[in-house]
Design goal:
278 residues, alpha/beta, Spore Coat Polysaccharide Biosynthesis Protein SpsA, Chain A, 13 strands, globular
């Protein structure tokens, strides 16, 4: 009989002492758990090791590169990639185990819905759900790609759909949400600038308004009460801030060469006076 496939759970982490234990507990059904930690200053590495994970400490090269490194360090070809702020629900675990026992037939990977909490409520509207994530796949047929910080799995083969939720607790507080927006928009703007993208008036005005309308009206964010309004507003703010930073970068680059002031040019053109020569 063919041996059933084994699963390696793959996690990247940094300063996740308060969340890593619950994440690892939801992954107890996996055959291996690999945690790649970027020099946490808290007890993340110690806790992960105590709970049975194989811990690797590594410098932070960016989201895409770190996640790709993690799956290549895994001992098994079928990988389940989660973040420290995510949890596998019992329903999703049962579906994954059924697939594993069947030998992961046909599909090269599987995606499933992600349900995020925000300010004390599960966000089932506003564009945050179902937010399907491709996280279970055969690494021989796929890899991590995308542009930091928004990574994605790129797969060569068919993708299946599961119904169980991946629970997501993205922000510990409203302040952390604001800090994340500032951090991510900086990374995004710098990446766009390197690729030669430019920000125009449309990006600074109409595009953010469209993001708000999509989240609050088209995606029914208004049904989430004041949280839906906050989420839609910050979605628009994210887009506007990203393009404002990109515009600032492109304008700063245009002024990187020191100008010659008209007064300086005239001064150089006037010959020294007789009194100056004396």
């Amino acid at each position: 009989m063919t041996e059933r496939p084994r699963i390696s759970a793959c996690i990247i982490a940094m300063d996740e002492e308060d969340r890593i234990a619950d994440c690892l507990a939801s992954l107890a059904f996996c055959d291996e758990v690999v945690v790649v930690d970027s020099h946490s200053k808290d007890r993340t590495r110690a806790l992960a090791s105590e709970l049975g994970a194989r811990v690797i400490e590594r410098d932070w090269p960016g989201h895409v590169a770190q996640k790709e490194f993690t799956i290549r360090e895994a001992r098994h070809d079928w990988v389940l990639c989660v973040d420290a702020d995510e949890r596998i629900t019992p329903e999703l675990r049962a579906e994954i185990l059924a697939l594993r026992d069947a030998g992961f037939p046909v599909q090269a990977g599987w995606r499933f819905p992600r349900l995020s909490s925000y300010l004390g409520r599960w966000m089932t509207r506003g564009g945050w759900y179902p937010d399907r994530q491709l996280r279970l796949f055969d690494r021989r047929r796929g890899h991590w790609g995308g542009n930091d910080p928004h990574d994605r799995v790129e797969l060569d083969g068919p993708v299946g759909e599961l119904r169980g939720n991946l629970l997501h607790h993205p922000y510990r507080s409203f302040g952390e949400h604001l800090r994340t927006i500032d951090k991510y928009t900086t990374i995004m703007a710098e990446g766009l600038h390197r690729r030669g993208e430019r920000a125009g008036i449309f990006d600074l005005t109409l595009r953010p308004s469209a993001r708000f309308f999509r989240a609050y009206v088209l995606k029914l964010g208004f049904l989430m009460g004041w949280r839906g309004l906050v989420q839609a507003y910050l979605s628009a703010y994210y887009g506007r801030l990203k393009y404002m930073k990109l515009r600032a970068l492109q304008e700063s680059a245009a002024c990187s060469v020191r100008p010659t002031w008209p007064g300086e040019a005239r001064a150089e053109a006037v010959p020294p006076s007789t009194a100056d020569r004396r």
